[in-house]
Automatic annotation (TrEMBL):
The keyword Transport does not apply. Its EC number is 1.1.99.39. Belongs to the FAD-binding oxidoreductase/transferase type 4 family. Keywords: FAD, Flavoprotein, Oxidoreductase. It comes from Caenorhabditis briggsae. It catalyses: (R)-malate + A = oxaloacetate + AH2. PROSITE patterns: FAD_PCMH. Catalyzes the oxidation of D-2-hydroxyglutarate (D-2-HG) to alpha-ketoglutarate. Also catalyzes the oxidation of other D-2-hydroxyacids, such as D-malate (D-MAL) and D-lactate (D-LAC). Exhibits high activities towards D-2-HG and D-MAL but a very weak activity towards D-LAC. Pfam families: FAD-oxidase_C (PF02913), FAD_binding_4 (PF01565). Residues 62-243 form the FAD-binding PCMH-type domain. This is D-2-hydroxyglutarate dehydrogenase, mitochondrial. It is an enzyme of class 1 (oxidoreductase). The keyword Oxidoreductase applies. InterPro entries: FAD-bd_oxidored_4_C, FAD-bd_PCMH, FAD-bd_PCMH-like_sf, FAD-bd_PCMH_sub1, FAD-bd_PCMH_sub2, FAD-linked_Oxase-like_C, FAD-oxidored/transferase_4, Oxid_FAD_bind_N.
């Protein structure tokens, strides 16, 4: 049944037109503030020049005006920064690896950037219980590499793993390509150390470092997807998972979206406990990968849809047997047109290269309108068809890839450059369509600046009010990451 949609603000995509006016209640950073920062961080903890990497996002669509980046080296230094900024009403943007795709880690006006790049020393791991405790500034791939030596891996994986940080992953509740198997970060988070933006820079140790603890509200989970609104995450305690000894990957060519869903159903029932990824690419993203990055499909036939399916287990013979039986059944039921099973890790890497290069390929068209919505599967690809018809020739490409196994589509609409006419056709139509069909306007990337005009869609007024009340408790002066999600 279609839902009644609330009214939303003018349908502008964020960028210059939609940026909120500077809150004049915030102080501007003065020379005396810089000296105070240098006093408790040291000169190397305060950077005023060459900060463009910290005030521009990965897509290049968000460029902030911050004039200083702070690099604390410890939780105590984060606390000193937040206490000072809170007392002096200086707005602050927490920043991890700056790979977010909604402008959440970029200052809007003159907010100070608090970079977590140097908070990456403490690491400990219990290799019996599989419990990791580490500083928030560790890069995801570094953690994965450290855990690999101990027979474990992180329970999630993203194309941005070489730059994103575990603190940023928690703050965005990152999804990625293993969620179908290991669940979301909600299933893994046990505890956090957070620093509040209050006048004491209060340091809170939330949750615990044991697997089961029902003695309180699960307060660390409030920070999952909090987008730097409630406090700065300084360290993370979470579960990791055993590193699979056998990984099998296959690329399948499918003729219709309906059949892709049937393949998913079959994968869930016949690969069941070893199924670890089920990723989707349509023919338009394949074409984009070829023309923009010279990356060629691994399948010999060109098919309307491709699926990358992966299993992770502990016994190669067993997993191979399952994968082969699954592929045979796909063929015998006429669900696939073509299929390739990776014969080596290099073959598998080629398959993943296609999927993981999709975000980069679309940027090469000039300008990309990114989406990360989730939808019931009956509407998943309908959205792509609806938007193709709606955008017509104004779009350079309308391509789709995504985490089909999680109902999460990444519909990307490209143009040679930013095009207001196209934006007016797309928004708010696209987001209203998603909510009207029972979906979420953000399955992964969050609200940030990008989706702020639409953030009320799909959320009731009581929930929005509760969120604002929580924000006021954590951040009484409203200095943390203003003009964004809440
Ligand atoms: P940042 O971009 O620095 O920050 C993101 C938000 O978190 C901001 O609001 C920031 O203020 C806040 N924040 C960061 N660190 C902290 C902290 N320590 N304390 C409090 N707040 C903090 N996302 C997915 O979910 N799934 C994917 O598959 C995926 N693939 C990607 C592929 C590519 C190529 C790229 C560029 C991005 C991808 N992303 C994906 C988006 C992005 O990588 C994730 O959102 C990631 O979790 C962000 O981590 P980060 O450290 O870069 O955070
Ligand atoms: C992905 O799954 O590749 C990411 O979420 C990034 C994107 O949407 O482009
Ligand atoms: Zn994604």
């Amino acid at each position: 049944m279609l839902k009644i949609l609330p009214k939303i603000r003018r349908p502008v995509r964020c960028l210059s037109a939609a940026v909120a006016a500077r809150n004049e209640g915030f102080a501007k950073v003065m020379q005396s503030d810089l000296l105070a920062f240098e006093n408790f961080l040291g000169k190397d903890g305060v950077q005023k020049d060459d900060i463009s990497n910290h005030i521009t996002d990965w897509t290049g669509q968000f460029k902030g005006h911050g004039s200083v980046v702070l690099y604390p080296k410890s939780t105590e230094e984060v606390s000193a920064i937040l206490a000072y900024c809170s007392r002096n009403k200086i707005a602050v943007v927490p920043q991890g690896g700056n790979t977010g795709l909604v402008g959440g880690s970029i200052p809007v006006h003159d907010e100070v950037v608090l970079s977590m790049n140097k908070i990456n020393r403490q690491f400990s791991f219990d290799d019996t219980m599989g419990i990791l405790n580490c500083d928030a500034g560790f890069i995801l791939e570094e953690l994965d590499n450290k855990l690999a030596k101990l027979g474990y891996m992180m329970p999630f994986d993203l194309g941005a793993k070489g730059s994103c940080q575990i603190g940023g992953n928690v703050a965005t509740c990152a999804g990625g390509i293993r969620l179908i198997r290991y669940g979301s970060l909600h299933a893994h988070l046990l505890g956090l150390t957070v620093v509040l933006p209050d006048e004491q820079g209060s340091v809170l140790h939330l949750g615990s470092s044991i697997r089961k603890d029902n003695t309180s509200l699960h307060t660390p989970h409030l920070f999952l997807g909090s987008e730097g609104q409630l406090g700065v995450i300084a360290s993370v305690t979470m579960t990791a998972v055993p590193k699979p000894r056998s990984v099998q990957s296959a690329m399948l060519g499918v003729e219709s979206f309906k059949k892709c869903c049937e393949v998913l159903k079959l994968a869930k029932s016949s690969l069941s406990e070893v199924l670890s990824s089920f990723e989707f690419l349509d023919a338009d993203i394949m074409e984009c990968l070829k023309s923009n990055l010279d990356l060629h499909p691994v399948l010999s036939k060109s098919t309307p849809f491709s699926i990358l399916v992966e299993t992770s287990g502990s016994n190669e013979d067993h997993d191979m047997e399952k994968m082969s039986a699954f592929l045979d059944e796909c063929l015998s039921k006429n669900l696939i047109l073509d299929g390739v099973l990776a014969g080596s890790s290099a073959d598998a890497a080629n398959m993943w290269k296609l999927r993981e290069s999709a975000p980069l390929a679309v940027t090469r068209d000039g300008y990309v309108y990114k989406h990360d919505v989730s939808l019931p599967l009956e509407n998943y690809y309908e959205l792509t068809n609806v938007m193709k018809a709606r955008c017509g020739d104004l779009a350079k490409r309308v391509v789709t890839y995504g985490h089909l196994g999680d109902g999460n589509t990444h519909l990307n609409i490209t143009a040679g450059k930013r095009c207001e006419e196209l934006e007016e056709l797309m928004y708010p139509f696209l987001y209203e369509w998603v909510v009207a069909h029972g979906g979420s306007i953000s399955a992964e990337h969050g609200i940030g600046q990008l989706k702020l005009p639409y953030s009320n869609l799909g959320k009731g007024s009581e929930e929005r009010l509760l969120t604002k009340k929580l924000k006021n408790i954590f951040d009484p002066n409203g200095i943390l990451n203003p003009y964004k999600m809440i």
